[in-house]
Amino acid sequence: MAAALLALIAPATPAVATEPSPGLDQSIAPDQPLATGRAVLRAGHVDIGPRYVDDRWTLLVHDDAERPVWRSTDETVLHVSDAALQTVPDDPAYSFLDVDAGARVYVVPQTQQPDVVWIGWNTQDPRVMRDIDRGVTLTLLGVRGPGAMTVYLQSGNFAAPQVLWRSAEPKPQPLWVEVNTHTHANWVFTRPGVYLVAIQVSADLASGEQVSDTRLLRVAVGDATSTDEAFTAIADIPSVPAVQAASDSDGAAAADRSGGGRSALIALLVGVAVLLGVALIWVQVRGGSARRRAERERGERAAAAPTDGDPTSESRS
Fold first, then answer.
1. Are 106 and 147 in contact (CB under 8 A)?
2. Of 39, 221, 304, 316, which is most buried with the most CB atoms under 10 A?
3. CB–CB of 19/181 below 8 Å?
4. Cα-flanking dihedrals φ and ψ of residue 39, to 5°?
């Protein structure tokens, strides 16, 4: 049963590749070209990793099979041949594969095999190493394919497997990768067919900016699987939070909105103050008029009242 690309639900604690394969020292020249045109990679050394394309942070495929070049994920198919078929061991340590012991699955191994494409990841582009703060986060967002995909590391034949990604998990699965890292792991595909693997690469830059890019890795598993179908297959990339730094225009718009809000508040306060002032003056004026009227009335009453020396008082009596 085909697994659908899984929607992003909530951030998870990143896994860390604590046991990278030894002997993976490499350096990447800053002037390695970006190849154009479709390419099917059936063997040789391949990494996924971030690089800037026209000053835009981008997840690419680094193809080191013949001459080192970078390739677009949309124009690259990784073809996992039948030479990758292996038998699932009868060992509970591999129960995370959710496959019965003795079943045959396709394995891109952690150590290179001549007839199998060798898939890893790196954070070794010179500008990437210069710009990122400490490392990047590679997040598996979902997988569409005829079977399940699992990625795990294993240090030696007797160490316990370290599971990094499982397509059966109903949530995004982040993987922390330090700067200047080059790692290969075991990639297991349970059935032949076309797999579209949605991967996001994000990072905090030393400048404080945040960058992110999400791409579909195209994998054709099995000799009989059509690479043309892998090139034309379509799947929705799960929506993810925008972590790309806000543009200057966005910042200016936010500043305008903030400034407009402050101006409106100031105008309101000024208007209230004016009304209070007018009310206070009106109260004072009205109070003064009342006092003057009261004083005038008292004066009139005092003038009208009789006194002891008044002769009219005796004649009236």
1. no
2. 221
3. no
4. -145, 135
> CA–CA separation, 82 vs 106, rounded Å?
7
> How deeply is 200 buried, as exposed, middle or buried, from its count of CB atoms within 10 A (0-12, 13-18, 19+)?
buried
pLDDT at 237 (0 to 100)? 74
- Residue-wise pLDDT for 233-276, tens only, equals 998 876 554 333 333 333 333 334 334 444 444 455 555 455 55
Q: What is the dihedral of CA 56, 62, 67, 69, to 10 degrees?
A: -20
Across residues 126-136, what is the average pLDDT?
Answer: 96
- Among 210, 211, 169, 171, which residue's Cα sits nearest to residue 12? 171
Q: What is the per-residue pLDDT across 31-51, written as a single tens digit (0 to 9) for each? A: 999 999 999 999 999 999 999
CA-CA distance, 213 to 51, in Å (whole number)?
10
Token readout for 144 is 């569409």
pTM for the structure as a whole: 0.71
Chain center to CA of 84: 34
> How far is residue 75's CA from residue 135's CA, in Å, rounded to a whole number?
27
Which pLDDT value is given to residue 216?
Answer: 97
Taking CA atoms, 309 is separated from 71, 302, 313, 317, in Å, by 124, 15, 8, 14
With a cut of 50, say whether residue 7 has pLDDT above it: no
